[in-house]
Hints:
There is one protein chain. By secondary structure, the protein is mostly helical. 69% of the residues lie in helices and 1% in strands. A two-stranded antiparallel sheet has the order 1-2. Strand 1 and strand 2 form a beta hairpin. The protein is rod-shaped. The model is unreliable at 236-240 (pLDDT under 50).
Amino acid sequence: FTFNTDRQSETSTSQTGVKYALPVSVMLELCINRCWEEDVLLRPLTHRFFKLTLQLLRRYAVWLSEIPTSSEELIVSDICKAVHDSYLIVDQVPNFVKKLTSDKIPVFDQTEILSISCKDILDSIPVLADYVINDVIKHCEKALEQTQAVPRLFRRTNREMPTEPLGYVSQLIGPIETDIYNSVLPDIVRQEWCSKTAHQLVTRYSETVAEILISLRKTEDSLAMLKRGRKSAAQTASTTNSCTDEDKIRAQLKLDVTELGAKLDIMGIPKGEEFEKLQNLVAKR
């Protein structure tokens, strides 16, 4: 099994009318069907052909589990397609096999043994989930680095108090939207992967924001010590009443966090407790 390098076709329809996202999934169904065609099947060895059917399903499961370590050039969208097809196979193939074998093998309950093969396929999916989430987070981190530049935008620049979020927020959430939210994953899986990725992103974003705020407090403490050493009360008062660079930086971070939350809401991704902590972090003075 392998990914098809031709990415022009969005779906591949099997003989049974199932619309798979990858040709390899169509090939699996085609091979299973071929096992039971009259010009191939040897009836005295029917049990062996049933075993071959199970081996084909097992090979597909192994292929799935080995995708992250494959030498092929991996694209997240292809992995999502493989997961999409896996759920279709688990849903469609058992009944498909039963129909193929109904008049060819002695009557016995195939449900349990086919369910074991299907479980092998589903058991391979968590490995793919980890790979996709880690890959998406890596792309998010490129935008996360821009958060560190926020203080430089306001320190000694005389910029006005910010009123809009910065562009890096869209870049921060973009990989989740492009690679997972807009993928062909089943709805339940898409929601789960989006939530897990967003949780990791918010956690790392919180750590970055916390570092910035700690730096701000140190700067403010240093300024406060200088003020206490000054003799002119009027000078101290005028400085205190003015809007400081640190105030602007905090205001910008608050706008950015609010924008991030809004984008998560648009995609229906639960923000969770970690995001609430982030909001409280930027709200503190």
